[in-house]
Amino acid sequence: MAISMTDISMTDMGVTDISIIIPAYNAAETLPDTLRSIFASCPEEDSRFEVIVIDDGSSDATQAQLDAHFAQQLDSGRLCYHYQQNAGVSVARNTGLNLAQGRYITFVDADDAVQHDYLIRLYELIQQHPDVDIFEFGYQTFRHQVDTVLGRGHVTHCRGFNTRQPAFEGAVSSFVWLVMCRLIKADVAKQATFPAGVKYCEDLMYLCAVYAQARSCYASDLALYRYRIGETSAISRVTMAQCQQVREFLHSHVFHDYRANGEQSDGTAQAHSAQTHFAQTNAAQTNTAHLKTIVDANLYYMCHSAGKRTMPFFEFCRQVRRLPLLTICRLYTQGLLSRRKTMICLFPSIYFFGHRMKRR
Predict the structure, then answer these.
(1) CATH second-level architecture of 5-231?
(2) SS3 per residue for the chain
(3) CB neighbours of 290 closer than 8 A, spacing ≥ 6?
(4) Which residues form the Glycosyltransferase 2-like domain (predicted)?
(5) Which residue positions in the chain have pLDDT lower than 70?
(6) Tens digits of residue pLDDT in 32-73
(7) Does residue 184 contact residue 107 with C-beta atoms inside 8 Å?
């Protein structure tokens, strides 16, 4: 049952339900619109949430913009501003985690936006499913005008309720590691930290640790987040060293633990017969192999982006192992690999030399 605007404004007003953490660096031009979209997504008198802006050493007018346009929210405590010396987005988010007072935590980027009913819908999810540790929801993409939708996506292939293991499998299968499209119970969110000094896929590393702590997840069909596609995306700046860092993290840490715990239910040891134990262990190994295949396909796409900018073609071919063509096609037909990633995995030389020609 949906929650009305009156219900939200009149109940539990003294409780901070949701903390929204926004890392900001020289975001004076975009942050005000981001904040307006958040504050417009619930009744004006609603005080059950807080927005925490972590200014990561900005040298522009980020703070001045907040003082000029959000004085009321700053005075009421719905908007909190914290300045720190520049240390990167991971450290900024960790600072936000330490400051957050809400029962649930989520993140927003300083150049993105949220849907008009964003907070209303998050309140509904909390009320309807109070035992869930992680809520997952979809997103829309835009470039310049927030109302001009370029595409839609989701961060998981799952829907509805899932326990830890299938929820993690769904996240890996989607391979969209947007921390902004998750609402996480605070006691789960604060058990992990973003890796300081990591400039690529820090969301992935944080979320893998979060999923390892969660007991249950709920994937909603709602597209509550609006994600800005920049002129230069992170994938266009990735290096081979960063690709290797992601590969080692997933293969050495995540999948090793995932396979080791495969015979357990949600991390809880149980007594099983030898036959059941063998079946569950074998299933875990099969699922791990399948997830590794998905990861390897996405890593090949990442390495291609790095290699086409920095390496000779034959050196790239020597260093980066390509997946079998049938495997790539199967992932695409199963909806586990996007069309662009599939085409690059199938025809890397065309895209490799095409990029070189465009640079001339």
Answers:
(1) Alpha-Beta Complex (3.90)
(2) CCCCHHHHHHCCCCCCCEEEEEEECCCCCCHHHHHHHHHCCCCCCCCCEEEEEEEECCCCCHHHHHHHHCHHHHHHCCEEEEEECCCCHHHHHHHHHHHCCCCEEEECCCCCEECCCHHHHHHHHHHHCCCCCEEEEEEEEECCCCCCCCEEECCCCCCEEEEHHHHHHHHHHHCCCCHHHEEEEHHHHCCCCCCCCCCCCHHHHHHHHHHHHCCEEEEEEEEEEEEECCCCCHHHHCCHHHHHHHHHHHHHHHHHHHHHCCCCECCECCCCCHHHHHHHHHHHHHHHHHHHHHHHHHHHHHHHHHHHHHCCHHHHHHHCCCCCHHHHHHHHHCCCCCHHHHHHHHCHHHHHHHHHHHHC
(3) none
(4) 19-137
(5) 1-14, 231-233, 256-286, 359-360
(6) 999 999 999 998 888 899 999 999 999 999 999 999 999 999
(7) no
* pLDDT given for residue 260 in this prediction: 59
pLDDT in tens, 18-36: 999 999 999 999 999 999 9
Write out the two tokens for 313.
């073609």
Q: Give residue 122's identity as a one-letter amino acid code.
A: L
Residue 31 phi/psi, 5-degree rounding, is -60, -40
Residues 6+ apart with CB under 8 A from 281: 262, 263
**What's at 326, amino acid-wise?**
L
Distance of alpha carbon 50 from alpha carbon 102, whole angstroms: 7
Q: Tell me the angle at which helices 31-39 and 118-128 cross, rounded to the nearest 10 degrees.
A: 50
All residues at 6 or more sequence positions from 10 whose CB lies less than 8 Å from its CB, including other chains: none
Give the gyration radius of the chain's Cα atoms. Answer: 21
Query: Which residue bears the tokens 């790095």?
Result: 306
Joined tokens for residue 215? 């007991």
Match 């960063």 to its residue by tokens: 242
Express each pLDDT in 283-327 by its tens digit.
455 577 888 899 999 999 999 998 888 888 888 888 888 899 999
64 and 28 in contact (C-beta within 8 Å)? yes
Amino acid letter at 5?
Answer: M
